[in-house]
UniProtKB/TrEMBL annotation:
GO MF entry, a single one: acyltransferase activity, transferring groups other than amino-acyl groups
Stretches that traverse the bilayer: 36-60, 81-100, 139-160, 167-187, 230-251, 263-284, 329-348
Residue ranges occupied by any Acyltransferase domain in the UniProt entry: 14-339
InterPro entries per record: Acyl_transf_3_dom (IPR002656), Acyltransferase_3 (IPR050879)
Protein name: Peptidoglycan/LPS O-acetylase OafA/YrhL, contains acyltransferase and SGNH-hydrolase domains
Length: 377
């Protein structure tokens, strides 16, 4: 596979921060008001598509510039981006466990949960039938993502020098199909939400769709050309958003349609939105949808979406004894979660998000642009 050194660098796009806001709102609503948006779980799939696109774009750019992938650098960046904030959450979780329920069983559960979260293997606890404390049970999605990104750079290292771009894209799409079919078969055979929804190979289609979009993006040195058709037709972005909205209120995680193509359709709709926003943002096209997602409130919340996602369940758990049946339930959760997320973002995430520049006086080796990675979940 011949890389083109002109492969487009991916700048930080404000509209994609706004899309993160939509994703985290959907995931928060299903935890707070599941009857209102039973399909709010598709917010996770929006995150998956966006993450797959951004990270694969960065990896392809690095390979185009240097002819290799620096695995150590990639994994260190992922650790710096993700671990500090989740470690802060788990420290609070452990402290509360010790203070409120200091039984041997609870301490053991807390210790095992801590290990599962910090090693990004917690999704498998639910798959094998173990209950995870609901303050942190939503972190299964981080495990699925990081297990994928442990392997994906290795896949690219193997295939990039050996196959044509079209072949790699075809293999990626084959992975989408395989994951989707396997998810449907497993759910039809077991009727287990935990297995069909949280097992990493069965929920990889969204990330792989994002990876496929990134490969199309990287095929053209001018990124505005790759998705020009979408850039000129903002209605496609609205169509993707309408599809996501319909699935948010129409899908149900406990029933077959979610697994027999529902999650795949949500991921495709998310990809359409991602493509539309990218093409409009990078071409500087003015549209209502682009202005909305690039607005200051949407961007600000999107930058904090990782911390919001981390703290939403914990705050709901903390407020349940006092406010679960009160009209203040949703407003109190919103305020508490945003406050915790702001603290996490300001004092944890931003301190570790990017490494400090080296003091060496020699000219460093040319490195690919990684600005988009700074905002990755």
């Amino acid at each position: 596979m011949k890389d083109d050194a002109r492969t487009a660098a991916l700048p930080h796009l404000p509209s994609l921060d706004g899309l993160r806001t939509l994703a985290v709102v959907l995931t928060s609503l299903i935890h707070l008001e599941p009857d209102l948006v039973p399909g709010g779980f598709i917010g996770v799939d929006v995150f998956f598509v966006l993450s797959g696109f951004l990270i694969t774009s960065i990896l392809l750019r690095e390979h185009a510039l240097t002819g290799r992938l620096d695995l150590r650098r990639f994994y260190v960046r992922r650790a710096r981006r993700l671990l500090p904030a989740v470690l802060a959450l788990m420290a609070v979780f452990g402290l509360v466990t010790v203070l409120l329920t200091p039984t041997v069983r609870d301490l053991v559960v807390a210790a095992v949960t801590f290990g599962g979260v910090m090693t990004y293997t917690m999704n498998w606890a639910s798959v094998v039938g173990h209950d995870v404390p609901w303050q942190v049970d939503h972190l299964w999605s981080l495990s699925v993502e990081e297990q994928f990104y442990l392997l994906w750079p290795l896949v690219l290292i193997f295939f990039l020098p050996r196959v044509r771009r079209r072949t790699l894209l075809a293999l990626t799409l084959a992975g989408v199909a395989l994951s989707t079919v396997a998810q449907a078969v497993v759910f039809d055979g077991t009727h287990s939400v935990s297995i069909a929804y949280e097992a990493s190979p069965l929920h990889a289609q969204g990330i792989l769709i994002g990876c496929a979009v990134a490969q199309v993006f990287a095929r053209r040195p001018d990124p505005t050309v790759a998705f020009e058709w979408f850039g000129r037709r903002s209605w496609t972005t609205w169509l993707g958003l309408a599809a996501l909205g319909a699935m948010a209120v129409g899908l149900d995680l406990d029933h077959r349609p979610a697994y027999n193509g529902g999650i795949l359709l949500a991921s495709v709709a998310a990809a359409v939105v991602v493509v539309g926003l990218i093409s409009q943002d990078m071409a500087g096209r003015d549209s209502t949808v682009r202005r909305w997602f690039s607005s200051a409130p949407m961007v600000a919340l999107g930058k904090r979406s990782y911390s919001i996602y981390l703290w939403q369940n914990f705050m709901a758990w903390a407020l349940t004894p006092l406010l679960r049946d009160s009209l203040l339930w949703v407003p109190a959760n919103v305020v508490a979660t945003l406050a915790a997320a702001e603290l996490s973002y300001r004092f944890v995430e931003r301190r570790w998000m990017s490494p400090r520049p080296p003091r060496a006086t020699r000219t460093p080796r040319r490195q690919p642009t990684h600005r988009a990675a700074d905002a990755l979940r």
